[in-house]
Amino acid sequence: MTGGSGGLGRAVVYAALRGGATVTVAARSAQKLSALSAELAAAGLKGADTECCDFTLVADTDALLARLAAQGKPTDVLVNNVGALNDELLVTREGLAASFVSNLLSHYQLTEGLIARELLRARSVVVNVTSGGGYHFPLLAAMLNVTDPARHSGVAAYGFHKRAQMVLNQYWNTIHHDRGIDFYVMHPGWADTAGVQRSLPRFRELPNSISRDAEAGMDTITWLVAHRPAQPAGELVWFDRKIRPAHVYAHTRHTTESGQSLAKTLQQYLLDHKKS
Ligand SMILES: NC(=O)c1ccc[n+]([C@@H]2O[C@H](COP(=O)([O-])OP(=O)(O)OC[C@H]3O[C@@H](n4cnc5c(N)ncnc54)[C@H](OP(=O)(O)O)[C@@H]3O)[C@@H](O)[C@H]2O)c1
């Protein structure tokens, strides 16, 4: 569970533990992770271990993969949940836009890394947490890693990442089909989490803008994992346990790019990181 110490991720951790799962909770702040461990113990919930990882850093995700491989612990369910909308442009010490790495590149790196290490086995499930923000933007690789402050818009960056997650999910379903791994992409609606309070304070003040709590927001994640419903080929998004269209505006269908070209772009970022 990435981004599991707060917000929707934390709600998934509670639900999974209550359902008897063993959960690896990966998040950035060691302090928040130990507070979560203490809360879980106080609630009598067993089966969680924690991994400190800053998913804005390729090196940190690499280190997490190495630790998981050393433990040799197979994963049946991966929830790529970590993500943020950064109003201010944050460029990491690795030279990449922090939100690009946390919202998309780390998901690619972790998923492909677990598959390559045979830690995500046949019959496993991957759930990618996208956002309705992706509905406004097409797939456009050139807009994924914008590090020039003059060209930065937090909302646009987030929307491009979230669109790319939808495309990547569909691509993964195609290329990893033979491994028996199911990939789902869902959006949670607007849930009142610290992420929304931090990134969209004005939106949050609008009447009826936030319609749900974290439990309601994450419900479709745990439902997908528990039911593993069949889904047609092609672009789609799950929302409130139902398949919804991946596009609501005609302009977002226009792209010369594809899931394959997106994966190639993401792979190239990882290769460039290795070389540097
Ligand atoms: N809430 C909504 O209404 C909403 C709507 C649409 C989509 N979403 C999507 O749902 C996902 C979860 O959102 P949320 O609202 O639950 O977020 P949140 O309240 O900000 O919670 C984020 C969680 O992720 C962790 N995290 C954040 N950045 C991290 C990083 N770089 N490395 C490791 N851990 C990190 C946080 O831990 P630390 O504090 O330690 O960093 C925390 O555990 C995101 O992908 C978001 O885009 C949410």
The count of helical stretches stands at: 9
Provide the gyration radius in Å: 18 Å
Unreliable spans: none
Counting structural domains, the number is 1
Order of neighbouring strands in the sheet with most strands: 3-4-5
List keywords for this structure.
3-stranded parallel sheet; 9 helices; 7 strands; single chain; 276 residues; two-stranded parallel ribbon; Rossmann fold; binds NADP nicotinamide-adenine-dinucleotide phosphate; alpha/beta
Short description:
The chain has 276 residues and is an alpha/beta fold. 44% of the residues lie in helices and 13% in strands.
Please, could you describe this protein's structure?
Helix 1 packs across helix 8 (about 215-225), helix 4 runs parallel beside helix 5 and helix 5 crosses helix 9. The protein has a single domain (about 5-275), classed as NAD(P)-binding Rossmann-like Domain (Rossmann fold, 3-Layer(aba) Sandwich), CATH 3.40.50. The longest helix is centred in the middle third of the chain and has 22 residues, at about 155-175. Helices cover about 45% and strands about 15% of the residues. The two termini are about 30 Å apart. It is α/β, with parallel strands linked by helices. It has helices at about 5-20, 30-40, 60-70, 100-115, 155-175, 195-200, 200-205, 215-225, 260-275; strands spanning about 25, 50, 75-80, 120-130, 180-185, 235-240, 240-245. The mean pLDDT is about 95. The strands form three sheets. A three-stranded parallel sheet has the order 3-4-5, sandwiched between helices. It has a two-stranded parallel ribbon with strand order 1-2. Strands 6-7 form a two-stranded antiparallel ribbon. Bound molecules: NADP nicotinamide-adenine-dinucleotide phosphate. NADP nicotinamide-adenine-dinucleotide phosphate binds near residues 9, 82, 84, 131 and 217.
